[in-house]
């Protein structure tokens, strides 16, 4: 009975707000969270559990001479102490393959072998019956090491990683058009050297992992997981020599992801291996200091970029060479951030010729990977700095230069001869110029120029800046959803996606409710569990609403069709004249007539129902959504800043993010994503940085040193959610909304600070710290 | 064992007799010995405020207090805010105003907000920002948290006014 209509013919979501879609309904996630009844990693406990404590490298680069564990082993409550020798059978932690080759030898072992390569690298682990005792014992592990020269600058000449391997595993190159000719024929060439500091997601919940081997069922369970459960399950199984069916991952509540959580880290494998060997549950909860040196860093890049323009300021070509500071090892993302930076750099502009070389380089710092808007926060900063520089060089207005170069609505879809993440870059839809007009008007840009002039005349140091960004979302290739109605009419939606706290359950429930004709509060969403659905691609890359949302739409429509078909037979009415409202099948024309509930239909479709002979029972359907291309959201950041002349402190006063997300399933949640994303973007623009001393010792190891914005640092934020350009690539028209709030923040703040200083191009590095601004202010005098 | 202390903690009006080492933090005891895992640890060095609880009605960071110091004090945690199935006005306002995403910082902000509303329900905007700047949220960008506290203050005023009329 399943699959009555080929999926391709199923209708797209109608325009305008529906019963649930397009409405700012409250979240189904919230009730347990506001009552303190959530289940975060540290809340997971099993009887007889052991606690793991990691002994971490204290040198940035050193040869390990010996690791003495006897004293630790003798401490009260200690059950085992492991070094690299004890886990020599566990292979290096792999990465998700792209077409970049040759990265394998640079992957991280679960415990350092021979060399330690960054401060914070796991060198040994202690297992004890109590977390305090495990920490006591870890302090008794003695690591003898011979310090080696450190490499901390990714722009310096590469060194040796290991015999025969140097610290530049690959260079990601992309090129199209006649680059040399573009520069030869240019009216002007601007050339900039720009850098983005090292910062990262830093979710408020640190990582945690709790493994348990259930011998009765022969299943290894890992709890406290996030983001990529199915890939992680498969890899844990492979690395520990078990069949994937014998390993299951579970997701509870997740205290923020932002790219860094839910990747496969050494600690995940260590607790799993220990649970199998020690035959007791093993719990590990990261502390904050560990988090700041052990969990993925991100962002650090240095660009040398040249742009060729004609006399009107139109781009003829861009040539960029950049250096990506990967830190000590290749982690699960491989070279993806470099690939994304290279592929997304052109942004919203028509660009006839482009050449980029991204040097992927290892240093003696914490390994890095993705953080919200990976590769885009960086390259939006770089590209928009270039656009401002072009305006300054040619004496053009900053807005006008952008207008002349924006890809127009008529040019959509706009295919670039480029790829990123292995898919061709085809900007799917957009009215870039139209959104720019709306954003400038909403922000009051023209009037603001007069206000700025008046404030400057009265001695204030104030300025405004803008940045245009293009995001990417809905990375394929696939995701599936199973929707089932039970005998009480309650709906269960099982998804291969995960939640990192962004509201996945509510959004999928809204889509399901809209398609099926039930209240969204009756939809239970199951996610992040490998034991409930065989496959899944997880929650990252702003993909869940696009991929799992589209699969939900298809599965719920399939269930709807099954229900209507069954109801038509029961009610003796044509199914085309029936609809479902609030879980009741009734005549669509509103006339009185017989009705039947989804609960009754579900009961009638049970395995013991005569009507189901010869059919798979249940009012249930599983559907998949596939996508070969990504959907590209876009938008504009507009910032107004004030500079304290005494301290050089930059105060963001007012801010607008305009973001076209194709279709907002829940505008309140979209706005929440954008404002929250902006707070992180402002962190990277002004405050957050992982700093190191010359010997590679990390200096940002507490929240007193790594400065996350508080409410006091936040400007008044306005959000303009646009739905001008629904994506043609999915039945909902949606584009991801998770990363636009972060993407343009560094670029817009840099432009606003330039404007306040009245020095175009003054800002060449993020974060814009008071010391830099103070120095620039001194230069004015 | 001489290193252990027998203490009684009063949490949300309920007495918990626990035996703890002197070094054991109040946060760990509330979470592990009392089983109240709604209080979360975000930094364990007193900056983020996720572990904020009320001790004799004052917000404190439970990661910076030793359990032995909390003996004889009245402790309140997030689990004590709702009356049965009825959320407190502030909890309800957090839901209505989308003041949480991942929910990890939420218990700390709820306890901080509860103290603010008890001590100064008509708090000015600047003072509210100042008070809330002691806690970190990594998801929301804070605007909706401030909005929720304002909304809860309004709801509580309306409730009081209605009670007076009745």
Automatic annotation (TrEMBL), chain B:
<keyword id="KW-0408">Iron</keyword>
<protein>
    <submittedName>
        <fullName>(2Fe-2S)-binding protein</fullName>
    </submittedName>
</protein>
<dbReference type="InterPro" id="IPR036010">
    <property type="entry name" value="2Fe-2S_ferredoxin-like_sf"/>
</dbReference>
<dbReference type="InterPro" id="IPR006058">
    <property type="entry name" value="2Fe2S_fd_BS"/>
</dbReference>
<dbReference type="Pfam" id="PF01799">
    <property type="entry name" value="Fer2_2"/>
</dbReference>
<keyword id="KW-0001">2Fe-2S</keyword>
<keyword id="KW-0560">Oxidoreductase</keyword>
<dbReference type="InterPro" id="IPR012675">
    <property type="entry name" value="Beta-grasp_dom_sf"/>
</dbReference>
<keyword id="KW-0411">Iron-sulfur</keyword>
<feature type="domain" description="2Fe-2S ferredoxin-type">
    <location>
        <begin position="5"/>
        <end position="81"/>
    </location>
</feature>
<dbReference type="InterPro" id="IPR036884">
    <property type="entry name" value="2Fe-2S-bd_dom_sf"/>
</dbReference>
<keyword id="KW-0479">Metal-binding</keyword>
<dbReference type="InterPro" id="IPR002888">
    <property type="entry name" value="2Fe-2S-bd"/>
</dbReference>
<dbReference type="Pfam" id="PF00111">
    <property type="entry name" value="Fer2"/>
</dbReference>
<dbReference type="InterPro" id="IPR051452">
    <property type="entry name" value="Diverse_Oxidoreductases"/>
</dbReference>
<dbReference type="InterPro" id="IPR001041">
    <property type="entry name" value="2Fe-2S_ferredoxin-type"/>
</dbReference>
């Amino acid at each position: 009975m399943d699959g009555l209509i080929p999926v391709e013919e199923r209708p797209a979501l109608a325009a305008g707000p529906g019963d649930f879609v397009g409405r700012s309904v409250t979240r189904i996630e919230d009730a347990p969270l506001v009552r303190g009844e959530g289940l975060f990693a540290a809340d997971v406990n099993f009887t007889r559990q052991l606690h793991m404590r990691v002994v971490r490298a204290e040198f940035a680069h050193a040869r390990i001479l010996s690791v003495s564990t006897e004293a630790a082993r003798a401490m009260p409550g200690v059950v085992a102490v492991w070094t690299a020798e004890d886990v020599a059978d566990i292979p290096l932690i792999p990465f998700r393959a792209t077409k970049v080759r040759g990265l394998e030898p640079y992957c991280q072992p679960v415990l350092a072998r021979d060399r330690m390569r960054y401060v914070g690298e796991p060198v040994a682990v202690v297992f004890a019956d109590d977390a305090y005792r495990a920490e006591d014992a870890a302090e008794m592990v003695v690591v003898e090491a011979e310090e080696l020269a450190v490499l901390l600058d990714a722009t310096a000449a590469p060194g040796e990683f290991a015999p025969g391997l140097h610290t530049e595993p690959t260079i990601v190159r992309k090129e199209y058009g006649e680059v040399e000719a573009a520069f030869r024929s240019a009216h002007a060439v601007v050339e900039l050297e720009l850098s983005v500091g090292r910062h990262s997601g830093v979710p408020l919940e640190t990582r945690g992992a709790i493994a348990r081997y259930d011998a009765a069922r022969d299943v290894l369970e890992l709890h406290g997981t996030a983001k990529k459960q199915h890939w992680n399950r498969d890899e844990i199984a492979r690395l520990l020599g078990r069949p994937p069916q014998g390993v299951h991952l579970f997701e509870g509540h997740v205290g923020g992801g932002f790219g860094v959580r839910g990747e496969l880290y050494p600690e995940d494998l260590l607790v799993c291996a220990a649970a199998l060997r020690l035959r007791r549950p093993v719990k590990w909860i990261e502390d904050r200091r560990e988090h700041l040196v052990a969990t993925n860093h991100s962002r650090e890049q240095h660009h040398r970029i040249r742009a060729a323009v004609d006399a009107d300021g139109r781009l003829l070509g861009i040539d960029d060479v950049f250096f990506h500071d990967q830190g000590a090892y290749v982690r699960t993302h491989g070279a993806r951030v470099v690939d994304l930076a290279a592929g997304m750099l052109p942004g919203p502009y028509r660009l006839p010729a482009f050449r980029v070389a991204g040097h992927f380089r290892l240093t003696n710092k914490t390994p890095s990977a993705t953080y919200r808007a990976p590769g885009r926060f960086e390259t939006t900063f770089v590209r928009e700095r270039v656009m401002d520089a072009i305006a300054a060089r040619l004496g053009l207005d900053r807005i006008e230069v952008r207008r002349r170069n924006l890809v127009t609505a008529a040019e959509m879809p706009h295919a670039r001869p480029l790829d990123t993440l292995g898919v061709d870059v085809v900007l799917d839809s957009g009215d870039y110029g139209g959104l720019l007009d709306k954003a400038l008007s909403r922000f009051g840009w023209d009037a603001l120029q007069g206000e700025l002039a008046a404030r400057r005349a009265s001695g204030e140091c104030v300025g405004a800046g803008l940045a245009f960004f293009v995001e990417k979302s809905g990375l394929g290739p696939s995701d599936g959803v199973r929707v089932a109605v039970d005998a009480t009419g309650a709906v269960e939606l099982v998804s291969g996606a995960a939640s990192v706290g962004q509201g996945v359950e509510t959004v999928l429930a809204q889509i399901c409710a809209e398609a099926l004709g039930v209240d969204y509060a009756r939809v239970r969403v199951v996610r992040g569990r490998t034991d409930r659905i065989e496959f899944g691609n997880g929650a990252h890359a702003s993909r869940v609403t696009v991929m799992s949302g589209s699969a939900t739409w298809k599965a719920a429509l399939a269930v709807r069709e099954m229900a209507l078909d069954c109801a038509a037979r029961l009610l003796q009415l044509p199914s085309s004249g029936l609809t479902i409202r609030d879980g009741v099948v009734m005549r669509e024309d509103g006339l009185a007539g017989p009705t039947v509930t989804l609960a009754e239909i579900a009961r009638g479709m049970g395995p013991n129902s005569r009507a189901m002979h010869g059919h798979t029972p249940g009012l249930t359907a599983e559907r998949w959504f596939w996508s070969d291309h990504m959907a590209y959201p876009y938008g504009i950041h507009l910032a107004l800043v004030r500079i304290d002349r005494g301290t050089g402190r930059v105060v963001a006063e007012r801010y607008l993010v305009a973001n076209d997300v194709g279709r907002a399933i829940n505008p309140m949640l979209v706005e929440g994503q954008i404002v929250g994303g902006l707070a992180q973007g402002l962190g990277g623009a002004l405050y957050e940085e992982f700093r190191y001393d010359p010997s590679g010792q990390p200096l940002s190891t507490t929240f007193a040193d790594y400065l996350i914005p508080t409410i006091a640092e936040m400007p008044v934020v306005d959000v303009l959610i646009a739905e001008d350009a629904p994506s043609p690539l999915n039945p909902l028209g949606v584009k991801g909304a998770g990363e636009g709030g972060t993407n343009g923040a560094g670029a817009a703040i840099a432009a606003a600070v330039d404007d306040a200083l009245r020095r175009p191009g003054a800002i060449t590095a993020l974060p814009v710290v008071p010391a830099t601004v103070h120095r620039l202010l001194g230069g004015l005098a | 064992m001489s290193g252990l202390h027998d203490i009684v903690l009063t949490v949300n009006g309920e007495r918990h007799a626990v035996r703890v080492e002197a070094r054991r933090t109040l946060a760990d005891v509330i979470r592990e010995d009392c089983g109240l895992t709604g209080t979360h640890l975000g930094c364990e060095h007193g900056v983020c405020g996720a572990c904020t609880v009320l001790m004799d009605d004052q917000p404190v960071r439970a990661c910076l207090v030793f359990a032995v110091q909390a003996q004889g004090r009245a402790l309140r945690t997030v689990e004590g805010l709702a009356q049965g199935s009825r959320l407190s006005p502030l909890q309800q306002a957090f839901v209505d105003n989308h003041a949480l995403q991942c929910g990890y910082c939420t218990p700390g902000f709820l306890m901080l907000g509860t103290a603010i509303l008890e001590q100064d329900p008509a708090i000015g905007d600047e003072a509210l920002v100042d008070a809330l700047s002691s806690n970190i949220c990594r998801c929301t960008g804070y605007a909706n948290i401030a909005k929720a506290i304002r909304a809860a203050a309004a709801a509580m005023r309306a409730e009081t006014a209605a009670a007076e009329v009745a």
